[in-house]
Each structure stands twice: as C-alpha cells, then as structure tokens.
Amino acid sequence: MKTLSALALPLVLGVLSLGACATAAPPPPPLTVTEAQAGPVALARGQALEIVLPLNAGTGYAWRLDREAPALILNGGSSRITETDRPGGPVATIFSYQGAGRGKAELSFTLKRPWEPDRPGDRKAVFQVKVR
C-alpha cells in the first residue's frame, strides 16, 4: 500500500502540471484603426478591434454602419461617441468588435445626416476584416 501511494503522488503531480501547460495564451492586445487606415485589417480570434471615425459635434452628421458583420466572425458592434468641451468641436465615434471565428467580414460605414438620402458622393470608410 505504501508503494502505491508513493507512485500515485508523482503521477497526480505530473497530470496537474500537464493541465497547466494547456492553458490558452492571452489574446493579442487590442487593435485600433482610423478612417485613414481603411482597407484590409488582420485580427486574431479573441482580439479586440476599435474603429475610430472622426466627426464634428453638433453638425447632425453621424457614422452609420451599412451592414452588420456575421456574428460567427466578429462579436460586438457597440459604439460610443467621445466628448468635446466646445460646441462643434472634433469628436469621434468608436465602434468596438472582437474576433470570434476564422473568416472575412466587410465593415462599411457612411458619414451622413440620418434624414438625408444616400448619395454617390457620401463619405465612406470600408474595412475588410480577416480573422485568423
């Protein structure tokens, strides 16, 4: 019986140490892109993505997401607007996502007043996101 318990302890410790090796690595740091960086974006699964789009407060203009990304590829889609201390000052709309699964998604944003019809000359920012 003493021999069995002497063998069991190293075996249990070995199994526990293997479990510690199997923990997943933390996701890469968040990636922030701006309107000037519109185009291809590479993202890892679990990595956060922030898209920062500028505008002027009080003008009636807002960034509109034209099409949602598939939830299997990108999670989130929340947005917030930064603050300014002066009327009409520069602010930004920040759209937040997280890479969920492998694949490609296109995020297209249009800057416009909500009551105006779409026009060919509308300002756009398009990001082709590839989650690896």
How would you summarize this macromolecular structure in one to three sentences?
With 132 residues, this protein is α/β, with parallel strands linked by helices. It is built from one helix and eight strands; from the N terminus they run αββββββββ. It has a single domain, classed as Immunoglobulin-like.
What does this structure look like?
The mean pLDDT is 85. The protein starts with a helix and ends with a strand. Helices cover 15% and strands 45% of the residues. The chain has one domain (27-131): Immunoglobulin-like (Sandwich), CATH 2.60.40. It has one helix at residues 2-21; strands at residues 31-34, 39-43, 48-56, 62-65, 74-81, 90-99, 103-112, 123-131. It is an alpha/beta fold. The strands form two sheets. The protein has a four-stranded mixed sheet, with no helix packed on it. Strands 2-8-7-4 form a four-stranded mixed sheet, with no helix packed on it.
